[in-house]
Design goal:
Elements: E1 2-7, H1 14-28, E2 32-37, E3 52-55, H2 75-89, E4 93-97, H3 107-120, E5 123-128, H4 142-153, E6 157-160, H5 168-174, H6 178-190, E7 195-197, E8 220-224, H7 233-242, E9 250-254, H8 261-269, E10 279-282, H9 288-294, E11 297-300, H10 304-313, E12 317-319, H11 333-345, E13 348-349, H12 357-369, H13 383-396
Parallel strand pairs: 1-2, 1-4, 2-3, 4-5, 5-6, 6-7, 8-9, 8-11, 9-10, 11-12, 12-13
Helix pairs in contact: 1-13, 2-3, 5-11, 7-12, 9-10
Length: 397
């Protein structure tokens, strides 16, 4: 069984982490797996040894893409590379990660391979982290709506990596525009027969080269901002907030692998002598999962992977959901997921726009004073193995 898998990222960890976990599960099924990595190389990421990973040339999507729409550079050459790889590899299944629910800037490079593989009868499936379709606000444009529908028609299956019925109501209610909400509901209904909700994909241990930190006896406040592409104020405010906490604690701050040297120097400059031995800065950690399971409070954005880990462990959490104020979309996955965490896991939500040291310290103190949340059901977190099994069974039949 041969599977070709395309994924990309914007120097964050969410899409990469899900891709690594799904690749690992597919390798356990004994498939021959070729991964096409479409973003900037991430040398600190470790894929399973049994799969081959190839970087697509001329990557254009980076951390700057959060603030401005990515421009397709060398799309024809990238498309030619993907098509040639698909023809030579001759996969039984072609998987795209998140596309076509999002990442439509990658359509020019994927379309040649999609057309080619569709004609050959190759199964085409999508691995989708959460049930939100990006660019819903553009569907009023009839040409875009027709293009959008044509993209979805290439696919045999959409594997959405959340528990059945859990997240969709939060996404639906977070869309305040009646027209966009109706468009969302209509598309999800049209795709219903092709959609399988697999449960969450739980992260694999995949980060190498992380900072080794000493083990201490004080309760830990763990601050993380994912890949480090956005929201630098979280790091500075966390340092300041730590000095205002009610109880003695240590704070570990994972600034993110995409954090530049200049940013790290700036963050370090905010430390004072009184923080010595109490606050520790790192770009990334090898053992983030273990620390999330043991920390007194997690402070983070509301990205998929950190949220899934907090739900599984019942980690007390302060979340600062990402919102791109330049985007015309009225919601995103972090806004919807933050409400799920608040309602079901007693998370505290703090707005980035109004974030200051006092508001963050107050939220952390409140979380430390509450009983620890009850972890989510074990059955929620088998998404990778469920997806891999269903794909392998489909190929075998």
């Amino acid at each position: 069984m041969r599977i070709l898998f395309h994924f990309t990222h914007k120097q964050t960890l969410g899409h990469t982490t899900r891709s690594v976990a799904l690749a690992t599960a597919l390798c356990r099924q004994g498939v021959e797996l070729l991964v096409l990595q479409g973003g900037m190389p991430q040398p600190f990421v470790r894929f399973p040894k049994k799969c081959k990973v190839v970087d697509i040339p001329f990557p254009f999507d980076s951390r700057q893409s959060f603030q401005e729409r990515a421009v397709e550079i060398q799309a024809a050459k990238r498309g030619e590379f993907i098509l040639k790889t698909a023809a030579n590899f001759s996969p039984d299944v072609f998987i795209t990660e998140f596309f076509p629910f999002g990442r439509l800037a990658y359509a020019p490079e994927l379309l040649p391979a999609l057309r080619f593989l569709r004609k050959k009868g190759t199964k085409i499936v999508a691995s989708i982290g959460y049930p939100l379709i990006i660019d819903l606000n553009r569907l009023e444009d009839k040409r875009f709506a027709a293009f959008h529908k044509a993209l979805f028609a290439f696919y045999d299956s959409f594997f959405i990596h959340t528990p059945p019925g859990l997240e969709t109501p939060y996404f639906q209610s977070s869309i305040k525009s009646t027209g966009i909400s109706t468009a969302y509901a209509t598309i999800m209904k049209e795709l219903e027969k092709k959609i399988t909700y697999t449960g969450y994909i739980f992260p694999e241990r995949m980060i190498t080269g992380g900072t080794e930190l000493p083990t201490m006896n004080l309760p830990t406040i763990l601050v993380s901002r994912g890949g480090g592409a956005v929201y630098p104020k979280i790091i500075v405010r966390a340092i300041e907030a730590h000095r205002q906490l009610d109880k003695p604690t240590q704070m570990i701050i994972a600034c993110g692998p995409a954090t530049s040297e200049k940013e790290m120097a700036l963050f370090t400059s905010f430390l004072k002598p009184q923080d010595q031995g109490r606050i520790f800065l790192a770009t990334h950690l090898n053992d983030l999962d273990e620390r999330l399971s043991q920390c007194a409070v997690s402070v983070s954005l509301c990205g998929y992977n950190t949220s899934v880990q907090m739900m599984r462990y019942g980690t007390p959490s302060v979340i600062i959901p990402y919102q791109n104020n330049l985007s015309a979309m009225p919601t995103n996955d972090q806004i919807a997921r933050s409400r799920l965490l608040e309602e079901r896991f007693s998370a505290s939500i703090v707005s980035y726009d109004t974030l200051n040291a006092q508001s963050l310290a107050d939220a952390i103190n409140e979380q430390m004073s509450r009983p620890r949340p009850k972890p989510g059901p074990t059955a929620w977190f088998n998404g990778a193995d469920t997806t891999a099994r269903l794909i392998a069974e489909d190929i075998a039949n």
